[in-house]
Amino acid sequence: MKVAVTKVDSYNETLVAQGISHALKQLGGINNFVSPGDRVLIKPNMLEGMPPAKATTTHPEVVRAVIRQVKSAGGLPIIGDSPGINGTKKVAEQCGILEICRQEDVELYEFQKTSEYAYPQGLTLKRFTLCDVLEKVDKVISVAKMKTHSFMGITGAVKNLFGLFVGTDKAQFHLRMKARHDFAGMLVDLTGLVKPVLSIVDGITGMEGNGPRNGQPRYAGIILAGANAFAVDLVMARIMGFEAEKMPVAARALAAGLAPRLEDIEVIGSGKSVKLEFKQPYTLESIEGRLPSRLVKLGQEQLTQKPQIANSCIGCARCAQHCPPDAIKIVNNRAVIDYQKCIRCYCCQELCPADAVKLKSGFLLKTVRKLTKH
């Protein structure tokens, strides 16, 4: 199994096009993935309407290059995602992807209607309610952003597919699957259902620290591509300096025999030797799997990091509006968290425009970490 890693110095249109082309040629060319007449969903990361320089979303020039590749194979590309905040069109306009759709004469499909999709072999879920776009296309290409993630450690080709859930449907999974292990299992099942034919990751400038929104841009100068989304994410995580096979999604996929071991992946391309050290999200270190589950459940209040509201809170109510268990209220223009309801999904931290949600470890969690390191 191959994963191509190509060096790309900047988001210059020509350089990005050359980088994508080079990566795909090493995988046999775009015709290995797209046939004439195929309707192809190109699924970028459009988490929120942020300018490209923030490194929150897939860069528009990467989307352009993939559109042109699909067209060159005779495919019919469409672009779509379900952002965490605001509608698809508004977010696409703010992050520069709408203008690319206009210039390339490609439809931007707004994820609004849903359909039911059965997946009887699922590890965690046997049925999904996803955007109806999957009924309208023949193939899916995941075009992700290389970022850290406060809940899953990293977000790449696999986590990018979570955007196929429409709007507030995403929140139910934080309520139903509070543990990383379970949420990761859902993502593994989602990937098995969707079966993206190609996964591409924009790693020219990624995000480190408290991603996927409130981290810091980190230049990496690479684009990754491969036929297996799990393999692409494993290589990406290793390049970022993480223990790739211990990432929650990778661990679940490996245990189920759905992902290759790193040692079995052939990494090719001009960027194959790139090694970096991304700052980890503060929540990455988890006690799940290091203590008996009954103790974790009994000590959930003390054994997880609590989101706390900093003085920089602007009282915009975004966290309250998007909190899955409705644990946040706005009191005197400031967010207040009800910790009896809080499920530690960190959606508030992910979506806060003022970066006012800080994650704090209690005394017991700090003690457990010290003990389990020895």
CATH architecture of the largest domain: 3-Layer(aba) Sandwich
* Shape verdict: globular
In terms of structural class, how would the helical and strand content be classed? alpha/beta
The total of helices stands at 12
Order of helices and strands: EHEHEHHEEEEEHHEEHHEHEHEEHEH
Give a quick account of the main beta sheet: strands, pairing sense, barrel closure.
9 strands, mixed
Give start-end ranges of low-pLDDT stretches. Answer: none
**Strand coverage percent:** 15-25%
C-alpha Rg (nearest Å) = 20 Å
State the distance separating the first and last CA atoms: 37 Å
Number of DSSP-assigned strands: 15
Q: What brief labels describe this structure?
A:
374 residues, alpha/beta, Rossmann fold, Alpha-Beta Plaits, 2 domains, nine-stranded mixed beta sheet, two-stranded antiparallel sheet, 12 helices
Give structural notes.
- Helices cover 30% and strands 23% of the residues.
- It has helices spanning 13-25, 60-72, 88-95, 97-104, 169-176, 180-194, 229-240, 248-255, 293-298, 318-322, 347-351, 363-372; strands at residues 2-7, 39-44, 76-81, 107-110, 114-118, 127-131, 139-149, 153-155, 198-208, 216-226, 266-268, 306-309, 328-331, 334-337, 357-360.
- It contains twelve helices and 15 strands.
- Helix 2 packs parallel to helix 4 (97-104) and helix 6 (180-194) crosses helix 8.
- The model has no long low-confidence stretch (mean pLDDT 90).
- By secondary structure, the chain is of the alpha/beta class.
- A hairpin with a 3-residue loop joins strand 7 and strand 8 (153-155).
- It folds into two domains: 2-268, Rossmann fold, CATH 3.40.50; 293-372, Alpha-Beta Plaits, CATH 3.30.70.
- Strands 1, 2, 3, 4, 7, 8, 9, 10 and 11 form a nine-stranded mixed beta sheet that branches. It has a two-stranded antiparallel sheet with strand order 5-6.
